[in-house]
Amino acid sequence: MTKSELRDIYLNKRKAISAAEHANQSHLITQTFFERIDLRNVRSLNCFISLKHKGEVETKDIFSRLWHDHPWIKTFAPRINVRSGKLESVAINDQTNLVENKWKIPEPEGAPTDRESLDLVIVPLLCFDESGHRVGYGKGFYDRFLAGCRQDCAKVGLSFFSPSEQIDDIDEFDIRLDFCVSPNELFRF
Known about the structure:
This protein is α/β, with parallel strands linked by helices. The chain has one domain: Rossmann fold (3-Layer(aba) Sandwich), CATH 3.40.50. It is built from four helices and twelve strands, in the order H-H-E-H-E-E-E-E-E-E-E-E-H-E-E-E. The chain has helices spanning 3-15, 19-36, 60-69, 141-147, and strands at residues 44-47, 74-80, 87-91, 98-100, 106-108, 112-113, 120-123, 127-128, 134-135, 154-158, 179-181, 186-188. The strands form three sheets. An eight-stranded mixed β-sheet has the order 6-3-2-1-7-10-11-12, sandwiched between helices. Strand 1, helix 3 and strand 2 form a beta-alpha-beta unit. The longest helix is centred in the first third of the chain and has 18 residues, at 19-36. The radius of gyration is 15 Å and the shape is globular.
């Protein structure tokens, strides 16, 4: 199936998840992330801030556990640069002020960091395939962002669903994930 077809299917599948199931599945994804992703050598991590109106996997508990249990890891979150239209990575902690942009995306205030400093990036997605390719919202923000990260920077997706067999219209600009965390499983690519 194409990205567009998969996008429609998985947006609808996500909408069908009840609030209770969303909370439960997000909790299980957080547990699986901390049980299965090795953070011992991670010093800086960028994680998306969940968009409630899009039904994304909730990342609040990931941030909280990082700040409480892994205080040596510097945490960052994405922000869209209004001039360039590109994602940048901004430091975030439990005191950081978040401001909604024009697309209702909460973003941290502050100066951006160099993407080259990131050891791990947690990316949002609608679905992914057995090869580690992902389908997002179709704007390419994360593919461009990830292209500027170090080669050894781990790219981790979070998904409510198991992988699709294959995304048919992958191109040279699509950046593959290294891992994807589902409620009870870690997929490695």
